[in-house]
Structure formats: structure tokens, C-alpha cells
Inverse folding.
């Protein structure tokens, strides 16, 4: 039994409240994404927060990580740091996830960190601004550096006297990169292969009930391009942004999947059954009979929200992938065998999965405004999806979509969809991206206004200044309001919010500070203010009385 689970049960015991629905694996890691009974959070327990006032910080364009009163931070690891004698921490960290090594000790465990993409200016000493056709001018050595700096890192971290530190040279420390061999969890080879080279574009992710990491391949087409089809299904290769295919002829079909990583030995597999598209994240729910439901969104204009329901316990291979029709509240099966319209267009289920976007559109899936992170509200069980924006459709500020599955059953095939909250000046935020519920059910949210649009007079993002971290408190006077609690360095976004098992630390990535720098002599950010003054993506630990007060369940238990 886990540290938190035991505490949680004894807490419930005192108040004699019924069964808890929250699965152990989510409590384990301090991130509840599955419902508890509403009654478990009673007036008695939340009373202390009734008059609790959260002091917001103002929007800021300062090149610094600013925090509201009651919060502080320290840096755990940053780009280029050694993790062992052979490997260094990759670039542009996104999703973070912490698993304790011993469930009785929440202060020692493995941190997984995604490395989404590289800025060639810093990583491979390549400034595309100097070339007309940037792809042709990269050398193989430059591409190799870029491929090394994507993927993910596993590092053992330990908290001592309130400070999280990397355990250098721990045997668990390792890199997964653009060159790591990864097998496909599928019976049919894809482009002739049953295992492929590398993972890239690792944006957000998730965790499985069996305690492995999920890392999601998002904008994979920027690395090896994409296969495009004309009306007669003739194919052409659309070149990538980075031009890696100039040196490594890897098929685009090997990317765009959800990847599972074993924390203990780094072995990985790509889950074909979950479809191929720009996966932002993958959020799992374990049903009573141990089958799993996986929610995953396609972060691109007018793309879709998907869910996979397994037909066997613990399987991410056997089952059916569905796509959302949010207008009629229906999950539509991407099932070649039983959907004549798919049978007519595609040769088999493997092709349906490789070309998920086209299959989804044939079925009548609803176009959404770039689905980003997905979390399950621990109190109500509703599913929340960030729709970050859709500039083409004049949705500049995005919103959060709420899905209520029929009868609260995650394997239901019908649901109700509504907007939970919309971005914009009235609600004080724009472009919602990552979400995280804490143990008490407060919703933490990061924003992702793009670097080239922030703080610009001619853009609608001016009032919001730098990207920020917000919390929507569940209790007290500010319940339901969006409160800014942190402001990011110049050009950066906060990503990967993840709570430690005792709820006292919020792990957070600071991604792409200084991204708009035109060259190394004109840096827009110098955060984290290293001696070399080069801006570096990093993972920080945010702690303090505010988190401990907000995390009311945790506070009352202890
Ligand atoms: Fe990598 Fe959709 O953010
Ligand atoms: Ca994101
Ligand atoms: Ca999340
Ligand atoms: Ca984003």
C-alpha cells in the first residue's frame, strides 16, 4: 500500500465516509486524475480555507520566474547538466512525472522529463536566419546533436532539507533520444519494421496504472516530414522543418505515437492502437475490471479528441480507438472491420491508425480548437480538455472543454460536452495548455501564448504579458476564479506541472526561455542566469506555504 493511499484511507476512516474511487496509482504519485466521492471533502476539512485569500501576482514581462507570496522555487536540473558519465539532460523540457522508488518514501524517486524539440541556435550552433534554405545547410554533426537533445530523461532525485537534488550517476539515470531503438506494440510491421529508431516531439504525457511513463509524440512532422495523400491516394513526402531526413531516411509513419517507457530500465514501446497524430498527452483511467481508458488529443487546428477503451485488462493494444463527436455527444469507433466507410477507404486497421486524422474526419468527428492537456476532475469525475486556441477560426484565447461521460462511466459511448471556462481578458488568462489537479481538487493551469505573439502591441495577447501559471481554487472566497501565481521568464512557457506524492512540491518545466533571440549576441532571456548567460530550459521545484494550504486534504491528513 502506498504512502498516500494509507494516509488517505485513515483520513476517510475518521469521518466514516464511503468507498473511495481514486485508484492507488494516481494517489501514489500525488496526482489525482480520477474521482473521489464528493462527500470525502467535507465542510470540516475545507473550513480552514473558507477565508483563505490567494494573492495573485500581476501580469509581468520581466525576464524572471516570478512567484506569488507563499511560493518559492529552486532549480533541479537544466539543459546540458550531466546525468551520468555519458549523458546530459536534453533540451526544451515539457511533461514531468515523478514516481517514488519506495512507496513509503515520497522524497526519493525517478523523475521523467520530456524533451520536446530543440532550438538550433543553442543546441547545434545553427542559425536558420542566416540561410535561405535552412534544411540544406545543417551538417550531419548538427543533426546528430539535435537528435540527441530530444526524447526524454530519467533522473533519480531526492529531497533533503527541502531541496530536491539529482542523484548523480544513479544507475536509473538515462536518456531516451532520437536514436533509441523502440519496439512497436503491434502485430503488423509499419513500413516494414517492428521496431523503429527514436522518439521525438515529446510534448506532454501520462502515467499508467502499472507505473510506467507515457510520452507523446506531438509535432513529429517537423523531424522527418509527413506522408501526404492526394485524392487517388498517391503519396508524396512533405519535407520536415529540421531536415533530419536528409541524413536519416526514417519513415514519418514511425512517429506520431504514444510511447511507453519503463522507468526501471528505459525499455520503450510505441502504442499503435492509440492512433497516429500530434498527440499532446495521454491520460489513463483504470476501470474496475482493470481494462483501461486512454484519453488523448490531437493538438492541431481543427483536429480531434480521441479515447481508447481496452478490451483486456492492462492492454494498450487490444481494444477500440474512438474519436469524439462533441456536438452529438458520441464516441465514434475507428474500427475498420465494422465501419464500411473506413473499409472502403483504407486497406486494414493498421492503415486506419496510421491515418487517424483522415479516418476521424470520414466518421464525422468534431473539429476542435487544438486539444492540449487532459485531466480528470478528482471530485466530479468530469474530463477537462484544454483547447488552447484556433487563430484561423478567430479563437485567440482558447477555453477548457468539459466532458461528462454518460452515467460517469469512462467506457460509455455517449457524453455531454460543454465549455467549463473561456480564455480572454475577463477571466484573466489566454491559451490554456497543461492542467493538473492537486490532491484537494484545485485546478492548476499553464498558458502557452506563442513567443512571437506575446508582448506585441499589434497582438491580442498584450494584456496577459508573459506566460503564467494559474490556479483555480476549489474552496473559499476565490473558488472558481483564475488566479495567476507565477510568471515565466521571457519567451518561455511553463509546462509539465506535476505534484510530489506528499503534495508539497509542484514540479514544473520552464520551456524555451529566450526563444525569440535572433543570435547569441542578442539574447531575449538569460534565465536561469548561469555564468555563460545562455538561456536554458530547466525543471524547477515549487514549494511553500501556499501549496500546503491549498492542498487541504494533505494538510488535514498530516
Ligand atoms: Fe507541445 Fe501542444 O504543446
Ligand atoms: Ca502543450
Ligand atoms: Ca497534466
Ligand atoms: Ca502548446
Amino acid at each position: 500500500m502506498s504512502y498516500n493511499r494509507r494516509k488517505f484511507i485513515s483520513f476517510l476512516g475518521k469521518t466514516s465516509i464511503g468507498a473511495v474511487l481514486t485508484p492507488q496509482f494516481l494517489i501514489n504519485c500525488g496526482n489525482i486524475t480520477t474521482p473521489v466521492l464528493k462527500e470525502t471533502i467535507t465542510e470540516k476539512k475545507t473550513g480552514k480555507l473558507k477565508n483563505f485569500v490567494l494573492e495573485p501576482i500581476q501580469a509581468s514581462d520581466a525576464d524572471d520566474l516570478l512567484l506569488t507570496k507563499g511560493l518559492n522555487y529552486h532549480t533541479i536540473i537544466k539543459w546540458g547538466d550531466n546525468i551520468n558519465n555519458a549523458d546530459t539532460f536534453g533540451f526544451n523540457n515539457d511533461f514531468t512525472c515523478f514516481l517514488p522508488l519506495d512507496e513509503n518514501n515520497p522524497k526519493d524517486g525517478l523523475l521523467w522529463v520530456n524533451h520536446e524539440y530543440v532550438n538550433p541556435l543553442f543546441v547545434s550552433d545553427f542559425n536558420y536566419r542566416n540561410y535561405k534554405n535552412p534544411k540544406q545547410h545543417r551538417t550531419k554533426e548538427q543533426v546528430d546533436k539535435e537528435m540527441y537533445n530530444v526524447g526524454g530523461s530519467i533522473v533519480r532525485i531526492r529531497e533533503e532539507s527541502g531541496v530536491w537534488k539529482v542523484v548523480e550517476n544513479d544507475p536509473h539515470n538515462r536518456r531516451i533520444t532520437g536514436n533509441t531503438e523502440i519496439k512497436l506494440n503491434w502485430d503488423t510491421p509499419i513500413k516494414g519494421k517492428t521496431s523503429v529508431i527514436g522518439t521525438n516531439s515529446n510534448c506532454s504525457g501520462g502515467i499508467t496504472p502499472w507505473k510506467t511513463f507515457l510520452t507523446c509524440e506531438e509535432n513529429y512532422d517537423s523531424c522527418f516530414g509527413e506522408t501526404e495523400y492526394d485524392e487517388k491516394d498517391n503519396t508524396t513526402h512533405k519535407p520536415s522543418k529540421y531536415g533530419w531526413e536528409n541524413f536519416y531516411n526514417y519513415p514519418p509513419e514511425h512517429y506520431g505515437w504514444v510511447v511507453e517507457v519503463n522507468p526501471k530500465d528505459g525499455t520503450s514501446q510505441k502504442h499503435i492502437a492509440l492512433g497516429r497524430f500530434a498527440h499532446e498527452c495521454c491520460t489513463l483511467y483504470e476501470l474496475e475490471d482493470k481494462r483501461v481508458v486512454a484519453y488523448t488529443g490531437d493538438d492541431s487546428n481543427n483536429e480531434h479528441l480521441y479515447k481508447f477503451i481496452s478490451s483486456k485488462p492492462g492492454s494498450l493494444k487490444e481494444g477500440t480507438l474512438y474519436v469524439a463527436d462533441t456536438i452529438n455527444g458520441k464516441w465514434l469507433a475507428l474500427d475498420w472491420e465494422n465501419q464500411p466507410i473506413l473499409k472502403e477507404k483504407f486497406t486494414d486497421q493498421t492503415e486506419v491508425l496510421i491515418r487517424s486524422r483522415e479516418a476521424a474526419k470520414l466518421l464525422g468527428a468534431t473539429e476542435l480548437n487544438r486539444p492540449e492537456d487532459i485531466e480528470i476532475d478528482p471530485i466530479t469525475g468530469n474530463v477537462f480538455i484544454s483547447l488552447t486556441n484556433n487563430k484561423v477560426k478567430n479563437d485567440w484565447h482558447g477555453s477548457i472543454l468539459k466532458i461528462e461521460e454518460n452515467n460517469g462511466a469512462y467506457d460509455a459511448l455517449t457524453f455531454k460536452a460543454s465549455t467549463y471556462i473561456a480564455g480572454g481578458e475577463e477571466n484573466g488568462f489566454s491559451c490554456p495548455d497543461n492542467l493538473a489537479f492537486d490532491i484537494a481538487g484545485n485546478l492548476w493551469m499553464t498558458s502557452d501564448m506563442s513567443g512571437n505573439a506575446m508582448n506585441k502591441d499589434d497582438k491580442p495577447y498584450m494584456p496577459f504579458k508573459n506566460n503564467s501559471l494559474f490556479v483555480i481554487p476549489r474552496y473559499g472566497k476565490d473558488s472558481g476564479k483564475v488566479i495567476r501565481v507565477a510568471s515565466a521568464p521571457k519567451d518561455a512557457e511553463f509546462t509539465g506541472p506535476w505534484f510530489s506524492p506528499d503534495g508539497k512540491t509542484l514540479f514544473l518545466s520552464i520551456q524555451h526561455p529566450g526563444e525569440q533571440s535572433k543570435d547569441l549576441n542578442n539574447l531575449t532571456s538569460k534565465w536561469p542566469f548561469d555564468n555563460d548567460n545562455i538561456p536554458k530550459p530547466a525543471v524547477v521545484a515549487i514549494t511553500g506555504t501556499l501549496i500546503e494550504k491549498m492542498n487541504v486534504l494533505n494538510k488535514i491528513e498530516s
